[in-house]
Design a protein that fits this description.
Length: 251
């Protein structure tokens, strides 16, 4: 895949590529993955990584309430890009009693979104990393998405684990400019006004003047915040996870 030169993005693109290559050389591919949600930021990060490392392993943490467009996009790219992709899902998905009584009847995405994210995103992520001895990952996290994400640095250490953010300083405009210039496919919701896209019950159209993530969990106490994946140490235990989630959702 050939990367195009994109005027104002040249410097940031080259910086991100160098950052990615430096970290991959450091780890020599051992115990290292890249997270993807198949959202706009993940797509840019994936494109950058695959530029020189097309066989690099990606991990999709797949909750049960994703929009159909994301599911279709993931299927499309698995084939078109021949992705080296692992999928992590909650072990509770096969438990009909749990899904009916704990999730569906109380409408968990609305009544307790923090617990919903913990069950379907954070716990599967931690289980995967611990079972596969993952020590580092790349993610498409960006500091300009929200106030909460301004605390992160491009290399974020949590004990023995390290998280790398190659597009941390990219703006929303730069993300869309890169997508347009490289003809990357995106979920249709972005064309309908969504600026940040997650699970279907918890994603809404935001405003052009508001924070980028204001449409996430817009009708709950978690409005504009996160699912907890980025604040929790993947190699931690259950108590550490709960503490990190509480702290991450304090406003």
């Amino acid at each position: 895949m050939k990367l195009l030169k994109v005027n104002s993005l040249d410097i940031k693109t080259e910086k991100a590529l160098k950052f990615i290559n430096d970290k991959i050389r450091k780890h020599n591919f051992d115990n290292m993955i890249a997270l993807t949600s198949f959202g706009k930021d993940s797509l840019v990060m994936m494109s950058l990584i695959r530029h020189e490392h097309p066989d690099f392993k990606f991990l999709w943490i797949k909750p049960p309430y994703l929009p159909e467009s994301i599911l279709n996009l993931a299927k499309e790219l698995q084939t078109a890009w021949n992705l080296n992709l692992d999928i992590a899902e909650s072990k509770h998905l096969k438990d009909k009693s749990f899904m009916e009584n704990v999730v569906e009847k109380p409408n968990l995405p609305k009544t307790n979104p923090e617990n919903c994210c913990s069950i379907f995103k954070v716990e599967p992520m931690m289980r995967y990393c611990q079972e596969h001895n993952v020590k580092a990952w790349f993610s498409g996290l960006r500091s300009t998405e929200s106030e909460k994400r301004r605390i992160y640095t491009d290399e974020w250490k949590q004990g023995e684990f390290v998280k790398y953010h190659p597009i941390l300083d990219w703006t929303e405009w730069e993300i869309w400019r890169y997508i347009a210039c490289h003809n990357l496919p995106v979920a249709k919701e972005y064309c309908e006004g969504y600026r940040s896209l997650g699970c279907k019950p918890c994603s809404f159209v935001g405003t052009t003047k508001g924070a980028e993530r204001e449409g996430r969990w817009a009708d709950t106490a978690l409005i504009g915040l996160g699912c907890g994946i980025h604040c929790v140490c993947p190699l931690g235990n259950e108590e550490e996870m709960k503490k990190a989630l509480r702290e991450s959702h304090e406003v």
